[in-house]
Amino acid sequence: MIQTPVIVTFANYLVAKGVRVVIIDCDFQHLIMKCRKADIKKYGEEQLPYEVWSYEPNNKVEMTSLVEKLHNDPEIDVVLIDSPEEDVDISDEAQSFRPHKVSREEPKKEEEKKEESEAQSDG
């Protein structure tokens, strides 16, 4: 129960810093999604700082598809996952997953290096 408010607070902090955030609510109680729905009723959808998606953690096929979708989405900088505190049977792939930073600047840097090396070879 402690992790849910920490995730929401951290998401708000990241958004204030200009980071594009999505929260995946996989907790069995789906508290973040319930709060989001209440916020939409009260304030509308115009000023939502980040998206909240609700998923069931026991559905391996759905979770695998979700991870692939998130990995390939250039509009998302950070994904925060609110997971259940109880033990959940997850796939071997998910157990061995190690987070890694994906920089959208890398292709630009490599292209710049290529241009520099071409300019040096021309000169």
Describe the protein in words.
- The protein is mostly helical.
- The chain contains five helices and three strands.
- It has helices at 3-16, 31-43, 60-71, 92-95, 106-122; strands at 21-25, 51-54, 78-82.
- The protein has a three-stranded parallel sheet, with helices on one face.
- Strand 1, helix 2 (31-43) and strand 2 form a beta-alpha-beta unit.
- It is elongated and about 65 Å long.
- The termini are far apart.
Give short descriptive properties of this protein.
123 residues, mainly alpha, 5 helices, 11% strand
Give a short synopsis of this structure.
This protein is mostly helical. Helices cover 49% and strands 11% of the residues.
**Major sheet details:** 3 strands, parallel
| Gap from first CA to last CA | 63 Å
Output the structural class: mainly alpha
The helix-strand sequence is HEHEHEHH
Tell me roughly what share of residues is in helical segments.
40-55%
The averaged pLDDT comes out at 78
Helix tally?
5
Overall 3D form: elongated
Strand content: 5-15%
Q: Kindly report the spatial arrangement of strands forming the biggest sheet.
A: 2-1-3
Number of strands: 3
Q: Poorly predicted ranges (pLDDT <50, ≥5 residues)?
A: none
Which value, in Å, is the CA radius of gyration?
19 Å
